[in-house]
Amino acid sequence: MYAHAASTAVAKIDLGGLAICHGLEQRARSHVAAIATIQQAHEGATVFCEGDRADNVYEVASGMLRLYKALPDGRRQITGFLSAGGLLGLSHNDLYLYTAEAITEVNLRRYPRARFERLVDEVPGLARRLLTATSDELRAAQDQMLLLGRKTAMEKIASFLLMMDDLHRDGGDADIVRLPMRRNDVADYLGLTIETVSRTLAKLKRDRTIALPTHDSIDLCDRDRLEELAAGDGGMDS
Amino acid sequence: MYAHAASTAVAKIDLGGLAICHGLEQRARSHVAAIATIQQAHEGATVFCEGDRADNVYEVASGMLRLYKALPDGRRQITGFLSAGGLLGLSHNDLYLYTAEAITEVNLRRYPRARFERLVDEVPGLARRLLTATSDELRAAQDQMLLLGRKTAMEKIASFLLMMDDLHRDGGDADIVRLPMRRNDVADYLGLTIETVSRTLAKLKRDRTIALPTHDSIDLCDRDRLEELAAGDGGMDS
DNA sequence: CGAGTAATTGAACCCGCTCAACTATCGTGG
DNA sequence: CCACGATAGTTGAGCGGGTTCAATTACTCG
Fold first, then answer.
1. Fewer Cβ in 10 A, N or C end of chain A?
2. Which residue of B has its CA nearest to A96?
3. CATH top-level class for A7-146?
4. Which of B79, B99, B142, B144 would best serve as a mutation to test chain A binding (most A beta carbons within 10 A)?
5. Where is B97: in which H helix or E strand?
6. B172 close to A (CB below 8 A)
7. Which CATH topology does B152-230 take?
8. What is the pLDDT of residues B158-190, one digit of tens each?
């Protein structure tokens, strides 16, 4: 689901390749495909807001989204970044529980919620697939709780870089990971400020653990070192 | 150690009342009940450890558990407290993703994982029920991410007290909420130290927002004030 | 090239942590 | 019943990692 080979090489979006149905039989797939419509969101656009009536479920076809919750005074916590195959809007509540915005140009498959829910009950295996997907998200959320509650800024950044590397290990350059999101998003994902993100990356750069060829790509020169740092085995040497 | 008052007036645990089957037809319920065995855990006991082979799925019949993840150096993040009806061990992975320990005396229903998984595919509606339960956990996890990443100590404590109140609003005394867990657990749940938890509770007590009749129960005198604080609308008056 | 936004860097501050001492509570056994 | 030790919780003093505020530099796109 998160792993997704050569994603950006897809000149035309595969409208039939519904990731939620992966592994289901053809008849089931067509049932689900039947209620899907396509929607685009340009960079920066809001797909839906926390608190809106949850009328649709979405699946990411291409591009990347940020999901976040906010406090009344504007403080944000990004709960996750979603790329091709990711599902959103799946609350069994009446309202969306978070806001979804496009980080890049995004293509979405939209499923009207009422009809989608009916399919979950009718299409054999679909509930099971969604359960797997949701369990995966929950696992990621629990990892993130450990990160937010107990890791230092350095450990957070190291964990984040390795995470992004896992996410789209897309056969490109070996150790180069692309960060489509801004520093602002990184900060709000890790529970830090943009200044701390910037300073921490600068320190990793000085230590030659990473290199920053451009602003939105990072070369993980010393992955072993990053893994030590991410686990809290950072050692005492500054 | 903890007397565990009126709530557990259940002399005999209801072995048939499987919460995961709530709403399923009788035949489905009996299928699930058929593979359940009972297990007890005394206070402080470990049910399973992060990284152990995930051989069983459990359901809490009574009592309370803490689930947590830990870093190599011992830092802990409690990802949740589970009471009657809660499920644990549901990873679709081979290994448990967190450690589960009993906070009070606990009664569990244990389901061998292989057989449980088979039932998920065979019993109609079961996957759907588990999806609902998991979605609920995910929602809670996302709220907790906002708390851990962006709330102040005071906001964390206020949110926590209201959460505990919601959790077992069991018709007992109007505003008295019982905290079965130790300060240590509260701290590791909120990403704070025990000292900060203690100091913050003391401040709320000085402000007459709460009262502490005993160590493990809290009187929410001014719930409105707590809700302001929890949302970050704390106001400027010390 | 120039305006606007994003990112970096520096300096001072502060919230929550660390370290330490003290107090309260509980369980045990004389 | 109290004495005792062990554990949990509270309180205080000082520190420090990360924030805040501010200035500078680097991009991006007309």
1. C
2. B139
3. mainly beta
4. B142
5. none
6. no
7. Arc Repressor Mutant, subunit A (1.10.10)
8. 999 999 998 877 666 678 999 999 999 999 999
